[in-house]
Amino acid sequence: MxxxxxxxxxxxxxxxxxxxxxxxxxxxxxxxxxFVCHVGFTVDNHPFVIPTGYARVxxxxxxxxxxxxRMLRALAGEAEVCVTVTLIDGLVLARSAFHxxxxxxxxxxxxxATVVNGEREKLRALRAFSEHVVPGRWQEVRRPSKDELKAxxxxxxxxxxxxxxxxxxxxxxxxxxxxxxxxxxxxxxRLAVGVPVDDPxxxxxxxxxxxxxxxxxx
Amino acid sequence: MxxxxxxxxxxxxxxxxxxxxxxxxxxxxxxxxxFVCHVGFTVDNHPFVIPTGYARVxxxxxxxxxxxxRMLRALAGEAEVCVTVTLIDGLVLARSAFHxxxxxxxxxxxxxATVVNGEREKLRALRAFSEHVVPGRWQEVRRPSKDELKAxxxxxxxxxxxxxxxxxxxxxxxxxxxxxxxxxxxxxxRLAVGVPVDDPxxxxxxxxxxxxxxxxxx
Lengths: 218, 218
What we know:
Two copies of one chain form a homodimer.
Chain A: E1 20-21, H1 24-33, E2 36-43, E3 46-57, E4 60-66, H2 70-76, E5 80-93, E6 101-112, E7 114-115, H3 119-133, H4 146-150, E8 152-158, E9 161-167, E10 185-193, E11 197-198, H5 210-213
Antiparallel strand pairs in A: 1-9, 2-3, 2-5, 3-4, 4-8, 5-6, 5-10, 6-9, 7-8
């Protein structure tokens, strides 16, 4: 795949084009740091947006869920889909209300999803989900049974029509407003990891594994 | 408005109905804690999902952006819209790959947005955005000019067709799997606030206001 994803009329930014980014490595870094996406699809002419987990495998994005899921069944018919991933990095406080903003990194992917079939392919996809969210987990857990694989629907979306949008740094005020006696700057935000909570039925001799106690996203 | 929002065929959960919640207070608490939503809409039969800020004012959700925004212009024509708000509270690690999950609180709102017109109404909405994201900020900043108000499009969505979906607590494993020597539990996640970063052009005598240094969401 080429290092730059070709912009289309649907992914090109009309406003603030400086925030647009079609660099494949940049897009993939955002997809690899986040783990929740918002999936947009249409049912009976009405748009729906559902949050769900995902994993990137090469040049494809995988999403999964129950075979009974309305969303996944709607998408499995080669329906058009939009998958959006957003990381919020900070609140940008300008001297004027109008120029307040946020620092963020987002990716929008457009296309048609296809169903992942075959036990081996589905198992590989489930391993990718697991390793994307909690690297190191897969080797410890009980693997999916045949029935569990059957109950899982996995969709695959090519990363061919996609774009990132990124804002970083300080506020940008109107020149005259820099004279105002108002604090301006950025409140940084990030996803913080708390102390792991043992399951109430955890066996006495099982300690917290290192991939859990050292867990972080960035 | 009634204390419970009436479920519709579009908001009723078909799977895991125990996670569904139509209690207005519960839905509003989630909307008031988060500040970024994902807006789903349809253009030329293709779904789009765009992240943006919002505020709740009474029984309405307000979103705003540039009058030049594709999204806002598409929605201003009384188009159908889906607005989804998601808070991720933790990673749920079960003993089997299949039962891994996340703790989360999400709200899905369906409906038609209308444009907020009139300078006074628009100003009130912008104040609500500001106070929703950074309470205390509005009284300090330069208020929007007439031209800035003109450049801002504000949409209002009634909170009449909406539902929350919530998962909390420990993993739920198959009974046989509780015998496995595998750590299970929850990795808590939350939005953390960093140390405020002064704007490089900040005047020397302006300190960080308390509503910034004490900033938190929950």
